[in-house]
Amino acid sequence: MSDQSVLYDVPGPRAVRRHRIGTVVALLFIAGLVAVAIQRLASRGQFDSELWSPWINPSDDSFSQVWELVGRGALSTILAAAMAIVLSLLVGVVLGVARMMSGRLGKIPVVGFIELFRGLPVVITIVFVWRAMAELDVPVDVLPGEPALWYLVIGLTLYNSVIVAEILRAGVASLPRGQGEAGRAIGMTEGQVMRSILLPQAFRTMLPALISQLVVILKDTSLAAVIGLGYFELLRRGNQISQVLDNPIQSLFIVGTIFVVINYGLSRLAVYVEKRLSTSSYSDPDPATAEITLQAQSRGGGPG
Questions:
Q1: Half-sphere exposure of 181 toward its Cβ, with a 13 Å CA cutoff?
Q2: Alpha carbon 240 to its chain's center
Q3: What pLDDT band is residue 55 in, cutting at 50, 70 and 90?
Q4: Nearest-CA neighbor of 198 among 179, 224, 181?
Q5: Which pLDDT tens digit goes with each residue over 279-298?
Q6: Residue pair 144/80 in contact by the 8 Å Cβ criterion
Q7: 259: Cβ–Cβ under 8 A, 6 or more apart, which residues?
Q8: Reduced to 3 states, what is the DSSP secondary structure of residue 219?
Q9: Number of neighbours of residue 254 by Cβ within 10 angstroms
Q10: Rounded to an integer, what distance in angstroms lies between the CA atom of residue 279 and that of residue 134?
């Protein structure tokens, strides 16, 4: 039996023919939609050079100002995303470990917190943080940076930390039970087992899912512009430029392309890190885990 037939039946000649015909029809339909869109845009003068010149022509008077604003917006986006990523990882690890290690009663508030913010849309979470902190006069001014930055970062952290916690919990649950049992067999505490054995392997296992969530955090920084939060990140700068130049399609197309490039770079970084970790895990196994396993086996408490 071939490897392809293990998971599903190998399609026959007729099925292959139908798949090819369906693919061709779908591609022709998409090409038709693109052609219609291009024709409509061209008929409305959206490809005129004066609309694109401030973005692509260095000799244009507005070129340097436009890209200076875009650079500032990109730095603001990266700053907010980096802060939210770090805080989400830290808070997410604490929540995930607390959920896995707390008793039945102690787990209730942690689970309630996770389910609450996992069920809320991220835009509502950001708006709630913004309005609640403003109404309660929380002294955000003492923190470095503008208050709108912290409203955005805290909102993103609340939403994404619970997702990181669930990703981490799924990673620990996917590990063989013998990993933890080997540590307990030599007298390690639950905290030591979690910190030294389970969490490092869970991070390695769930790295693709974690990186994907980090990409989502970067994209969600654009919600600051959508809800009118006074933080001038990349999308808000793009909107600002399009209003001055009266070219929203061109400006938002360039801004969207910048987001795609940044997110693609993060995705490629994730693939690179995953490959490096996978290679190191096979060629150079974790010495702490190997030592624990050997000690457990010598005491008759094998990993199972």
A1: 11
A2: 26
A3: very high
A4: 179
A5: 665 544 454 444 544 454 45
A6: no
A7: 218, 219, 222, 234
A8: helix
A9: 20
A10: 49
Q: How far apart are CA 67 and CA 49, in angstroms?
A: 17
Contact between 218 and 266 under an 8 Å Cβ cutoff? The reply is yes
Instruction: Single out the residue of 80, 120, 11 nearest to residue 219, CA to CA.
Output: 80
Model confidence pLDDT, tens digit, residues 95-143: 988 888 887 788 888 889 888 988 889 999 999 999 898 888 888 878 8
Q: Measure the N-to-C terminal CA separation of the chain; round to a whole number of Å.
A: 31
pLDDT digits (tens, 9 = 90+) for 171-189: 888 877 777 777 777 777 7
Write the pLDDT tens digit of every residue in 200-230.
877 777 877 888 888 889 889 988 888 888 7
Q: Return d(Cα 59, Cα 76) in angstroms, integer.
A: 27
Nearest to 229 by CA among 300, 155, 144: 155
Q: What is the pLDDT of residue 302?
A: 46
| Gyration radius of the chain's alpha carbons | 26
CA distance 89 to 201: 16
Residue recorded with tokens 């955000």:
140
Cα four-point dihedral sign 220, 223, 229, 232: positive
Nearest CA-CA partner of 153 in 91, 70, 110, 237: 91
Distance CA 49, CA 51 (A): 5
| pTM reported for the whole predicted model | 0.77
